[in-house]
Amino acid sequence: MKTKVLFILLSILFIIPVNAMPHKRPRHKVNAKIISSSYKVNTRSPLFFNLTADETNDNLTITFQFPLEEADITVTDKDRNIVVSEMDSSIYEEKIVNIHAPESDIYTIEITSPTVDIIAEITLNEI
């Protein structure tokens, strides 16, 4: 009997804090789309570009999910101010770029590599 009561009390101690954690909703709906891409080199297999953007805890997280070598990544805001600049980055499986506390509504991503040039746009819309 005592073990059952003790087990119930311990389970309540573990369940309540997990349920009491605040769920922080993102402030924006994030849309990412590739505007243009131009190939510099003919390749044997086609290149597929995929990038996603999510807002979590006041950070804008941009994930590149396509392979590129020696790529220059530049992220600018709507006023054309450079927010992130990474030179000679190699993207093999996945590359993540974080922008702390996004203040702009529109971000432009420019990726320049020996193989291809890509321009993408990220828009943040209020929920």
Spatial order of strands in the largest sheet:
1-8-7-4-5
Distance between the termini: 51 Å
Tell me the β content.
over 45%
Basic shape:
elongated
Give the total of beta strands. 8
Element pattern in H and E: HEEEEEEEE
Computed structural class: mainly beta
Compute the average pLDDT. Answer: 80
Rg calculated over all Cα atoms? 21 Å
Tally the helices.
Answer: 1
Write a compact overview of the structure shown.
The protein has 1 helix and 8 strands; from the N terminus they run αββββββββ. With about 130 residues, the chain is mainly beta.
Protein traits:
about 15% helix, 1 helix, mainly beta, 3-stranded antiparallel β-sheet
Describe how the helices and strands are arranged.
Layout: H1 2-19, E1 28-39, E2 51-56, E3 59-64, E4 68-76, E5 82-91, E6 95-100, E7 106-112, E8 116-126
Antiparallel strand pairs: 1-8, 2-3, 3-6, 4-5, 4-7, 7-8
Describe the protein's architecture and organization:
This protein has one helix at 2-19; strands at 28-39, 51-56, 59-64, 68-76, 82-91, 95-100, 106-112, 116-126. A hairpin with a 2-residue loop joins strand 2 (51-56) and strand 3 (59-64). The strands form 2 sheets. The protein has a 5-stranded antiparallel β-sheet with strand order 1-8-7-4-5, with no helix packed on it. It has 127 residues and is mainly beta. The model has no long low-confidence stretch (mean pLDDT 80).
